[in-house]
Amino acid sequence: MYLPVLRGKQYELLALREFSKEIRGSDIIAPVIEPVKSEFKTLETACNFLAKEDVCFTIIINPSVGEIKNPEHILRQINNTKCLRDNPRFQIGIHSYNESQLEFILGLIKEYGLENQELIIIHNDTISEDFYRAVSGAYKVKFNFLHEKIKVRRYKYLFPSETRVLLDDVFESKPKNSDYIGFEDEPFSDIYLIYKEENYFGFSDYLTIGEQYTDGGFLPYAVVIHLTYESRDGLRIKHFVSDSNDDYHDTPGKFAEALGKLVSFTATLPFKTKAIKTFEEYYNSSHYPGLGSIKKLSMLNHLELVNYLLTK
Asked: What InterPro entries does the record tag this protein with (predicted)?
């Protein structure tokens, strides 16, 4: 099972809206949304799409990044949003850093009358076995996300095997787009091949965006398109970088340069996602969709590819 983490930004939510039809009623992919904007309407629209397609999904109520500092802001929205409050396919997500903090968040969930909602706990650090036993006895813990940065390997055995999810930030983010020059083809992840052997029920990542969060943006000197693809040893990622990178002028032209490299590569692929076919249509029509849409297609390609690999 694949449980990708997406920040609740515009193009991440648009990607989920488009992808929801591909995973209608599926138990193979279950997205986890970490809201980063205090405005809830865009997120609610995406959740309506997911609920309509009977997609299993999670919203984290105490985001680690972004504008929302108080979990109650999201708890109120959950109580006021029908597609969340009355949806058995929806889970509440919690970042856990220590026992007292987790206990406080659980108390808020109970205060808002949501103690019967299924939970996922994202473990950023360890808690004791006795404390977890008390939590799981009082609440419905569906999944325990175990971050790769937790170095205590036996920690996962505190939790039932059917709840264990490995969370790993596998995307190698670089400060500037031009920094991908010289690193155009890299290993991405093979966890989808071995997660069951590693005694996990599922796996999670931050797609082709990475865990590092940035808000806002500026015109880049270089345009890069990130594209995951299947190889014999697992997933790899291509970084198609533009050539005219001396200034920030002519972003559409830079995109055309990067896109030409992508199209030359995808012509050799045995399986093409819908996202790849859209990139090829942009190439044939000389269309520039905007930087946000490029990022959205990169995420959609990865989601489609993993769905294909887990269901074929």
From this structure: Sce7725-like
